[in-house]
Write the structure tokens for this entry.
Amino acid sequence: MPRFSIIVPSHGVAGRLSQALDSVLAQSYGDFELIPVCDAPDSPAADVADAHAGRDSRVAPVHSPPSAGLSGARNTGLRTATGSYVLFLDGDDTLAPGALAALNARLTETGDVDVLYVEHERTPWWEGEPTNPAAPLLAKTPAGAFSPSQAPQLTGVQLPAWSAVYRRAFLTDHQLTFPEGPFTDLGWGGLVTLAAERVAALRSVVVRHLLRRQGSRLNLPGAHHHQLLDQVDMVLTRAADSELSGALFEQLFAVVLKTASRPERLPSGHRAFFRRAGRLYRSHRPAGFRAPGGSVGVQHRLLASGAYSAFRALRGANRSASEAAERVPRPRMLRTRLRYALDLRRPLDPNLAVYCAYWGRGYACSPAAIHAKAAELAPHIRSVFLVEPDAVDAVPKGVEHAVIGSRKYWEVLARAKYLVNNANFAEGVVKRRGSVHVQTQHGTPLKKMGVDQSTYPVVAAATGSFAKLLGRVDRWDYNISSNRHSTQMWERAFPGSYEALEYGYPRNDVYYSSTADEVARIRRELGVPEGKTAVLYAPTHRDYRTGFDTGLDLEAFCAAAGDDVVVLLRAHYFYDQGRAKSSGRIIDVTGHRSSEDVCLAADALVTDYSSIMFDYANLDRPIVVYADDWDVYRETRGVYFDLMEAPPGPVARTPEDLAEVFRDGSYAGAESKALRAEFRSRFCEFDDGLAAERVVRRVFLGEPPEAALPVIPLAERVPAPAATLVRS
């Protein structure tokens, strides 16, 4: 009996089948049988398989008609297999070198497990960096063998069948076969998860999956998407009363919602799909199931209630930053292209500046601070702020603006001498000779950024083309930095010929210029009760999660921390839905346009790995780091330094620890103050309240570098007073 049976369906991939088979036969570990599954004895794939069988007796081709589909081919291979363990390989994929040896070593270490989940690499064949989507899931699993209930996030429905190895006796005993129809991997993964008792993980790449340039066939438009619901119904029916029902339910309906939010996949019957999905949702929803937070949670509720019209209005709201950047209109239409081209031929306007923040989300951040200071020191400059249509109403009175994508938008972009952004302008924007681009950034880098993300597959996949990224960096003339750490990291992450302006972040000026009256006014506007301690909770985005999750029971935290505590919840701007969702002692300030206002209102900050901690440190108020998943975050996102070794205050790993540091007052004690002082000396280096003025004088007024205002020493700076200090 061989150690491994490797089953390789080959329908439609005869041209690449030899590469797949060769990758198996070249393995250093040789105790296996290789089972190519071909359409028919006279098919092109059969010729390739027979040639390999003639050279190596371990190759044993079998046949399955195309009408049986992928599930039929795999089941045919399963019936033929004799190995102790079974793994699957698509006919246009390859086994990584040393994969079988690594599998054998891991299985020897873990003993007889029912399923061994492995990593796989997705490789675009036209452009882009390889990604490893299984890595975040496997990173959170126990070190040895474990029960599926110990890692409920690791259900097979999130992984393709070829991202795991299966004990053949386990499959036989439970009579497990691939369900018919499309989305067979989804059904297979769920059924396997429900039957397995002992599983393990191998945190190394076993399969290299070649992404088709045309994309997955399953994502093409067609009626086959309705059969997705058949797989969901089958798995959840089997999962009734299982302790894994909640995890399976959430992950399966994540797939359903993804399809429902893309009506182009269902040219007809989209409403029927939604309605049936809603019925399945209501009938299979486990008792006590809590929908995720953020936009995804809203979609869950709309699906459960059958609110099809509302769902259609919401779809597409929860997009990543890279998607937001891609949504910025480019001059695609012929008339727009011609007008933009003509405007590019006109002279630059030496007194025109355009500003943009967060891809047009509104009048905010350092671009807004520079805009305001330019109006004071350089009134001859005409300043135009670029905003999305839904942000127009939030632009302050008297601020000239242009709607992104409009005729005015392209005109000012073509003719402005000065362009200021905290992200990047649209791909189609041309860097003109004589124009000056100022990149303000919007945070101090703890997590890996720019090209440093290339070795972190989950993040690299969302970043897109690094060549295009560097093309955007080439437009920068100045890059603003708030500390030397940032200067060095920006040089690594965004290599270019720009000049670093170590002037501080203009958006942080208000932390030194605001008065006690202004702090009190902001607290009233946000609804902070008089006399309460306002704790700002600002978790960052997780690249390995979908949708927003607070990661903390905030009501329970308030109850445990003390009667005088209220929480200001500010989710990452990816999840800004533009409306408050406050309740009880929780005040949702996610939609508030100014993070600086929110920080000024807070008496203390609780965050995980958000860059807001670096800005908030300027206020010299207590900071607590809630690091319940630091190891996972560091492994999947990548960081520039170990925050646990140099935190700005106490570090809490559990909700109980977090509540305790507030209950006993240590969050604001002497040790906390000492940690914060060291943190501020490193990361508040140039922030002294004069950053915007330095930028305006250098960029707009042309003052030489040596004329820049000297940085006020940290010990001489006076931050805006906290409300608790005002009361005392």
